[in-house]
Amino acid sequence: MKRRSFLKRAVAATAAGFTIVPRHVLGGEGVTPPSEKLNIVGIGIGGQGAGDLKEMAVENIVGLVDVDYKKAANTIKTYPRATLFKDYRVMLDKMGKSVDAVMIATPDHMHAPIAMAAMRAGKHVYVEKPMAHSVEEARVMTAFAKEKGLVTQMGNNGHGGEGLRLIKEWIDAGAIGTVKEVHGWTDRPGDRPGEPGHKWWPQPQEVPETVETPPVELDWDLWIGAAKERPYHRVFHPHDWRAFFDFGTGALGDMAVHNLDPAWYALDLGAPVGASAESGPLGKDSYPAWQIITYEFAAKGNRPAVNVKWYDGGKMPPAPADLEDKYHLKDNGIMFIGDKGTMVCGGWSGAPGLFPVARRREFELPKATIPRSIGHRQEWMKACKDARPADAKAGFDYSGPFTEALLVGNLATRLGKRIEWDSKSLRATNAPEAEALVRKTYRKGFEI
Predict the structure, then answer these.
(1) Residue 326 class from Cβ within 10 Å (0-12 exposed, 13-18 middle, 19+ buried)?
(2) Distance between CA 201 and CA 238 in Å, rounded?
(3) Are strands 101-104 and 39-43 parallel, antiparallel or unpaired?
(4) Same structural domain for residues 411 and 328?
(5) Domain-ending residue, one of 110, 140, 155
(6) What is the CATH number of the domain that holds 136?
(7) Which residues face 309 on adjacent strands?
(8) Is 17 part of any domain?
(9) Does 319 share its domain with 175?
(10) Which of 31, 252, 407, 447 is 20 to 30 A from residue 14's alpha carbon, by CA?
(11) 391 found inside a domain
(12) CB of 112 closer than 8 Å to CB of 141
């Protein structure tokens, strides 16, 4: 073949086989090709889960699971290509091989059963707060994630923010001296701001004797899930389940996860050695209208023993003398009292402020030393992509013990006595009647 003929045929063949590949397929700067994206399934998508998925939408949202299609309708419309399920077990059976990670934002009582099923299937998990419904659940979830080398994260708005890092840096630098006591609080359960008479959710609540028919869009048996069977009533779903022992963890599980987080993070608290509580009357099936819980923590390293108090239902800590007259504690927050001053922070690990104000001028605030966060959801997704069995990080290493400690406070409220806590044996050593509350019994098909 002559050279000219060869070149002519080669050019023609190349042109026939050449395809222009769109940049979004190949990737490139600022563009992630589909092959490098996570395949994520959302489980519990009608409330907080909708917001979680919105921040995960840079990945592939391939499946949606919810027991109530009406409540989840907006999320379902947002991801029309996602496969829809009501039962997470069916989803894992049918889609398991193509799923990398799952986001779980169901009521509290289903966090552990769903997370454990997903982790057994080898999936990374993002679980909304509180991580678990019982102390034993938190321990089992933590151990399993670590054993399997899976990337885990408890959803906690504020933990990825700048405020939390400033709080720790200032405390570590001695901005208020030695921390003597800590107070955290929330306005829940209570009136929503600007909506008198409209509760976040009322406590205590009694279950009406009347039996109602579940809405046609709701699979009530799946909503009950691991809890003991009971007839449907609107007091449980779609909103007020947090009030009930069987389904929620009250204001402590809803808001102490946010507002007490700076204390655990900055002071490395770990497990308490004791807890006591004051509260309004308990309902037969539900938490009280308010509670004040005192946690006792033993000395650790260079930190002396410290007490942490939690207030909910509108109860508030007394304001220390060094707060200015014009400053008022907000509806949600945390306050560290030291031997040289006071630090007050907003809810959800809000930015700290030093009191008295003169302390700010006297004390040179340190420069940032803790790496800045890009947001806990984004960090979780990046870790999922980078995960290797040998070096994957289990976020439950932190949030597991934190969740356990919070739930110990609920034990004190429900038992109505001070309890001495032994974290190694998962026991309230002076309260054998706590055993049933520490552990959890499941309906068939919902084992952890």
Answers:
(1) exposed
(2) 11
(3) parallel
(4) yes
(5) 155
(6) 3.40.50.720
(7) 183, 294
(8) no
(9) yes
(10) 31
(11) no
(12) yes
Indicate the pairing of strand 352-355 with strand 342-346.
antiparallel
Domain holding 225: CATH number?
Answer: 3.30.360.10
DSSP 3-state of 383 = helix
Task: Note whether 111 and 210 are same-domain residues.
Answer: no
- Checking phi first, is residue 413 left (phi over 0); if not, alpha (psi -120 to 50) or beta? alpha
Determine the pLDDT at residue 20.
44
By residue count, the chain amounts to 448
Q: Are residues 313 and 423 in the same domain?
A: yes
Same domain, 306 and 429: yes
Range of the domain at 121: 33-155
Residues 6+ apart with CB under 8 A from 321: none
Are both 176 and 218 inside the same structural domain? yes
- pLDDT for 360: 74
Residue 69: Cβ within 10 Å count: 19
Q: In whole angstroms, what is the distance from residue 59 CA to residue 53 CA?
A: 9
Give the per-residue pLDDT at 31: 52
Give CA–CA dist 223/109, Å, rounded: 10
What is the spatial distance between Cα 212 and Cα 234, in angstroms, rounded to a whole number?
8
Supply 359's token pair. Answer: 């302390």
Going by C-alpha positions, the residue among 131, 154, 152 that lies closest to residue 384 is 152
CB 252 within 8 A of CB 406: yes
Give the tens place of pLDDT for each residue, 346-375.
Answer: 999 999 999 987 777 777 777 668 888 888
Question: How many domains does the chain divide into?
Answer: 2
Q: What is the pTM of this model?
A: 0.89
pLDDT at residue 2 in the model: 53
In this structure, the strands spanning 274-279 and 195-199 are: unpaired
Domain boundary among the residues 155, 187, 221 is at 155
Identify the CA nearest to 290 among candidates 243, 240, 241: 243
pLDDT-flagged residues of the chain (< 70): 1-35, 191-199, 367-368, 389-394
Residues 360 and 332 in one domain: yes
CA distance linking residue 213 with residue 216, whole number of Å: 9
**Is there a domain that residue 27 lies in?**
no
Question: SS3 of 405, please?
Answer: helix
* CA–CA separation, 432 and 79 (whole Å): 49
CA–CA gap between residue 100 and residue 59 (Å, rounded): 11
Same domain? 257 vs 342: yes
Contacts of 93 (CB under 8 A, 6+ apart): none
Please check whether residue 384 lies inside any domain of the structure: no
